[in-house]
Amino acid sequence: MFTKGQLIFAACFVIAFTLAMIWSYRKDIKIHKKHYKNTFIIVISLFLVIVVFALITFSLH
User: How many angstroms separate the CA atoms of 34 and 28, rounded?
Assistant: First the structure.
């Protein structure tokens, strides 16, 4: 399906991209702490909304 060269490129790309994202996040961590306080509340709320919609969907069928 994929050649050996394509698989090697994909693996190298994933590793490089992951390292770049980690480096970028570490560089901006002070800004994130200042501007994005309490974002976990939004994540929890979004998760609860999805769960409620799923429960409604399953209960109607």
Answer: 10
